[in-house]
TrEMBL record, chain A:
InterPro entries xrefs: ABC_transporter_permease, MetI-like, MetI-like_sf
Residue ranges of every copy of the ABC transmembrane type-1 domain listed in the record: 67-283
UniProt membrane topology term: Multi-pass membrane protein
Gene3D superfamilies with a match to the protein in the record: MetI-like
Protein known as: Carbohydrate ABC transporter membrane protein 1 (CUT1 family)
A GO CC term assigned to this protein in UniProt: plasma membrane
Pfam family, one: BPD_transp_1
Automatic annotation (TrEMBL), chain B:
Organism annotation: Aquisalibacillus elongatus
PROSITE patterns attached to this UniProt entry: ABC_TM1
Pfam families: BPD_transp_1
InterPro entries hit by this protein: BP-dep_ABC_trans_perm, MetI-like, MetI-like_sf
Taxonomic superkingdom: Bacteria
Entry GO CC: plasma membrane
Name listed for the protein in its UniProt record: Raffinose/stachyose/melibiose transport system permease protein/N-acetylglucosamine transport system permease protein
SUPFAM superfamilies recorded: MetI-like
Keyword tags: Cell membrane, Membrane, Transmembrane, Transmembrane helix, Transport
Automatic annotation (TrEMBL), chain C:
Pfam families (UniProt xref): SBP_bac_1 (PF01547)
Record-given protein name: ABC-type glycerol-3-phosphate transport system substrate-binding protein
Secretion signal span: 1-18
UniProt superkingdom: Bacteria
PANTHER family per record: ARABINOSE-BINDING PROTEIN-RELATED, DIACETYLCHITOBIOSE BINDING PROTEIN DASA
Record lineage: Bacteria, Bacillati, Bacillota, Bacilli, Bacillales
Keywords, sorted A to Z: Signal
Organism: Aquisalibacillus elongatus
């Protein structure tokens, strides 16, 4: 009796969440796979075309471009975010037990809680070549030759988008790493002091090795979040100039909701998933291999 | 002397970081009280007169007020549902043994890896079929579904910390599974529930992509959508002031929230990911 | 616990209530209008809707307007819950919807009498602008006259300085030197929206070099057409314009309202836009500004016919979905909206020109009159934006290429080569339906 009662209870506990989850998360994902074999614009008839969408990706220069741009985002963002977060975390950690500690920590963390839309628009106004703050400041301090159309030229647009994305991401990871540093047993650091280690040596040889686990987490998080970069390019550059800031995510969105190629967009989504999985596994492998 | 130099060295990097964070926000605020014409033609100057008219036009003409209310409704209902439903699942997955436990656990784990983008097109078509496009109910359901995985795994960690003996004692006292859950377990994992709520608040309040796909009707748009909308509209008009006022209006609520829950947010974020 | 649950239920009920669409079935007719709101605004429609409702009791005209109306329309078409009357705007795939048979052909209605008139409705429109046809059927009805991208200048400034409007590229370069002495640039262009200068500078240059044949061959994806002489020469000329410093500093990073503001501040001599320019920028136009339109200058040794650009206007016209609930009521309102009296009101109050006959006299804006003048004085017209109506993805890709050319990231030769490659990609893609473009 008790047993059956318990069984029902388990079902009731699981049911609502599971239904929602399977309906809105799992089913559309499977449906994406199915739709990727059809040519369908959302209106009219669906046409089975087999692997045509996947084949088309190899000749679709815009897709290839978006693919490479996504790779470029990863290549730049992962090291930048990692490095800056570590430096910030180490700097703040040194100030523990001072009144500055909480202040700096809060300020660094702050961008993380802002809406990505607001961040994108905020920086778009700063980068504006005629009414923006950046060119204004450069002119005011006599660096006129440095002023440019930051988001309007291929040479600077990508860097600007990377900068803003890092601006948004860094706070969270700094705090993550910081808390790991604070968890390092004091004795270890004291021992290093007694051995006469310089601050730099202490950072490299004592603290960093202790942070391996958390740095691995940071790397994977950054990777997955970089693959998902969307708001910044969409709102700051629209993916331009000439596609130089357009990641796969944005290209897929445009295929689905500007060109209404739902089938093709789904195929891109499937490729996107495979990429995410490969990237995650690779990162795990590399960081693991490092350890042994 | 040495000490001061040392102090400067310790602070200089962090001061630069802080300036990079704070100055943009101040710039937006100053521009938000400037008349539109000055924004384009005299960008760095201080406003000739302080004018809150931009706020009025952002709030009512540009629809930020509507977006604010919609976001409030969607976020609060979503959070309650997410926390409640996730706690139920996390409790069972942490404390009970049953046949498909592994399968269910794995399928929720899968949700952590599935990028939202994968299912963009089919999700839209599904919602359209269910008549849930341009509906706040639809948006809530999708938000809940997409937040479950993350929240469940945070909460499992908290449930795992509750000793089994407590549950056993309650059962011996004659508590059924629902009473155990409600009266014994939930109070014990309260810190976890609060952390989960705070995190989902930030995520959902700021969410843009799902809303962008599922909501196109102006009266249903959430705050981030309305904000992005201002940028669209601004391209067809010359009301630059409203853009900046809109930015300030969207930054203020999260900032207040941040000031109140700062500790929990910062410490919770680290706790969750390290345990997870 | 109970309290929370109850609040929850209550909230859900409230939310559900929000999304419920209440239908009135007590003999009331509601015509749902969804329109794109761009530089022309939407007040002229809303004003007419007001007066129409006053005259016709029991009829409600519900006008929704937005710059991103295409997203809402897509959703509505997908769910078979279409509005009754639409202006889809430039981003909606209206031709695709027509292909699917989801837009009603209007020929039968056009043969009916016009609003309170004995004249056939179709005869009340200027014929030249009335060509939104597919397979012999008319689907769209334009009411606002839209030119293609013209160049605009300030007649006062030119008079004050004793400058002449340039007739040729050579004169344009001479003018540039004179402007530089005054600290002015020749163009303020919206660098981040390259379609403005693609349709406003590049395609006119192609026409000047190779005539409309060069354009039509390229638009119809003929092999090698995007690498023709005219295409290449126009690209080289564009590059030269950049090198000669014709464009305002910073202009490649701003949007169109910003660029146009500089033009109206007289920091630049020319802006390029359609006839919506005056309405869009009304807030910032100085009182003594004499806004006038001109056709793009000629080139030396060109084979072109100096045609004037018109807009094909697919995005700006009125359509009635095949499955609309209130087709007849929508037609009636559209007839009212396009009646001489209403259009004259629109022309007067909003400074818009129209394709409805006998409303020219109501034009009070000299700027608009000058735009019409450009059309009347030229030997004929062509529709640069036709490629965007038919192959939006291809057009977008080539527009992006042109941006790279203007930014100096690629050479004219590379531009032509890559444009041809994009054209080939479209030509070989069986999933894109091919259309024979002409005007």
């Amino acid at each position: 009796m008790q047993h059956r009662n318990e069984k029902w209870a388990i079902i009731i506990f699981l049911l609502p969440a599971t239904v929602l989850y399977f309906l809105f998360v799992i089913y559309p994902s499977i449906e994406a796979l199915r739709m990727s074999f059809y040519n369908w614009r959302g209106l009219g008839t669906k046409e089975w075309i087999g692997f045509d969408h996947y084949k088309y990706m190899f000749v679709d220069s815009s897709f290839i471009n978006a693919f490479l741009v996504t790779g470029k985002y990863i290549l730049f963002l992962m090291p930048i975010v990692l490095l800056v977060s570590i430096i910030i975390a180490l700097s703040i950690a040194k100030l523990i037990r001072t009144r500055w500690f909480n202040l700096y920590r809060a300020i660094t963390f702050f961008p993380y809680i802002l809406p990505a839309v607001a961040i994108a628009m905020l920086w778009a106004t700063i980068f504006n070549p005629v009414s923006g703050m950046l060119n204004g400041i450069l002119e005011a301090v006599g660096l006129e030759e440095w002023t440019r159309e930051w988001l309007g030229r291929e040479s600077t647009a990508f860097g600007s988008v990377v900068f803003v994305t890092a601006w948004q991401m860094v706070g969270f990871y700094s705090v993550l790493i910081l808390s790991s540093i604070l968890n390092i047993p004091e004795e270890l650091l004291e021992a290093a002091d007694i051995d006469g280690a310089s601050r730099f040596q202490k950072n490299i040889y004592v603290i960093l090795p202790m942070l391996k686990d958390i740095l691995q987490v940071v790397l994977i998080f950054t990777l997955i979040n970089t693959l998902k970069v969307f708001e910044m390019p969409q709102l700051m550059t629209g993916g331009g100039p000439n596609g130089s800031t357009e990641p796969i995510s944005l290209y897929m969105y445009e295929q689905a909701f500007s060109n209404f190629n739902f089938g093709y967009a789904s195929a891109i989504g499937v490729v996107f998933l495979i990429l995410t999985l490969i990237a995650s596994v690779l990162t795990l492998r590399i960081t693991r291999g490092d350890r042994s | 002397m040495m000490k001061i130099l040392n102090q400067i060295r310790q602070h200089i990097f962090l001061v630069i970081v802080s300036i990079l964070v704070i100055i943009p926000v101040i710039w937006v605020f100053v521009n938000s009280v400037k008349p539109s014409s000055e924004i384009l033609l005299a960008p760095l100057s201080f406003p000739s007169k302080i004018d809150f008219g931009n706020y009025v036009s952002a709030w009512s003409d540009a629809g930020l007020g509507v977006g604010f209310v919609n976001s409030l409704i969607v976020t609060s209902i979503s959070i309650i549902l997410i926390v409640f439903l996730s706690a139920m699942v996390a409790f069972v997955l942490s404390k009970k043994q049953f046949r498909f436990k592994k399968t269910i656990q794995l399928s929720f784990l899968l949700g952590l890896m599935l990028p939202t983008f994968l299912a963009m097109a089919p999700l839209f078509l599904l919602m359209n079929k269910l008549d849930l496009v341009n509906s706040l109910v639809g948006l809530v359901l999708v938000y809940v579904a997409y937040s479950l995985s993350f929240t469940i795994f945070i909460l499992i960690a908290f449930f795992n910390q509750v000793p089994d003996s407590l549950e056993e004692a309650a059962v011996i006292d004659g508590c059924g599974p629902f009473r155990v859950f409600w009266n014994v377990m939930l109070p014990l994992v309260k810190p976890g529930l609060i952390s989960a709520a705070i995190f989902n608040f930030v995520g959902i309040w700021n969410e843009y992509i799902l809303a962008l796909i599922l909501i196109s009707d102006d009266s249903m748009k959430t705050l981030p959508l309305q904000l992005a909308n201002i940028m669209m509209i601004q391209q067809y008009h010359t009301d630059w002031g409203a853009l900046y006022a809109g930015l300030v209006l969207s930054i203020i609520p999260v900032t207040i929230f941040f000031l109140i829950f700062q500790r929990r947010l910062i410490e919770g974020s680290t706790a969750g990911s390290i345990k997870g | 616990m109970k309290k929370i649950l109850w609040t929850l239920v209550l909230l859900l009920v409230v939310v559900a209530g929000c999304t419920d669409e209440s239908d009135n079935d007590d003999g009331e007719t509601t015509v749902e209008v969804m329109m794109f709101e761009g530089g022309f605004g939407s007040e002229w429609v809303k004003d007419s809707a007001e007066s129409y409702m006053e005259m016709n009791e029991g009829v409600t005209i519900d006008v929704t307007s937005s710059p991103d109306i295409h997203q809402q329309l897509q959703t509505r078409f997908l769910s078979d819950d279409v509005p009754d009357l639409i202006v889809p705007g430039p981003s909606f795939d209206i031709q695709g919807v027509i292909r699917e048979g989801m837009i009603a052909p209007l020929d039968d209605y056009l043969d009916e009498n016009a609003y309170e008139s004995d004249q056939a409705w179709v005869d009340t429109f200027e014929e030249g602008q009335f060509n939104l046809k597919k397979d012999g059927n008319t689907y769209g009805i334009p009411t606002v006259f839209a030119s293609g991208y013209l160049w605009w200048y300030d007649e006062k400034l030119f008079n004050d300085q004793g400058w002449e409007v340039p007739q040729t590229q050579e004169e344009l370069y001479e003018l540039a030197d004179q402007a530089e002495e005054q600290g002015k640039a020749v163009f303020a262009i919206p660098g981040v929206h390259p379609s403005y200068y693609f349709y406003g500078i590049y395609l006119p240059l192609v026409e000047r070099f190779g005539g409309e044949e060069a354009l039509l061959n390229a638009y119809n994806l003929e092999e090698g057409a995007w690498q023709s002489d005219a295409i290449l020469k126009a690209a080289q000329e564009s590059q030269k314009m950049v090198e000669e410093g014709l464009f305002m500093e910073g202009t490649f990073g701003i949007n169109h309202t910003e660029a146009q503001t500089f033009f109206f501040q007289r920091d630049a001599l020319f802006a390029m836009a359609g006839t919506w320019l005056e309405g869009e920028m009304a807030d910032v136009i100085p009182e003594d500004f004499k806004l006038r339109a001109l056709n793009q200058p000629a080139v030396a040794n060109g084979d072109g016919e100096q045609l004037a650009p018109i807009s094909t206007g697919w995005g700006g016209a009125w359509y009635i979905p095949e499955d609309a609930n209130q087709k007849d009521a929508a037609i009636e309102f559209l007839k009212y909206l396009s009646s001489e009296a209403e259009v004259e009101k629109m022309v007067e109050s909003k400074g818009l020109a129209s394709v409805v006959k006998n409303t020219d006299d109501a034009i009070q804006s000299d700027a608009l009159a000058s735009a019409l003048g450009v059309l009347q004085e030229s030997s004929g017209s062509y529709a640069p934006t036709a490629i965007n109506d038919t192959y939006p993805e291809l057009a977008g890709n080539i527009v992006d290429l042109y941006q790279s050319l203007m930014l100096g990231d690629i050479t004219p030769e590379e531009f032509a080569e890559e444009a041809e490659a994009f054209a080939e990609q479209t030509r070989n893609n069986d999933n894109v339906e091919k259309v024979d473009i002409s005007w």
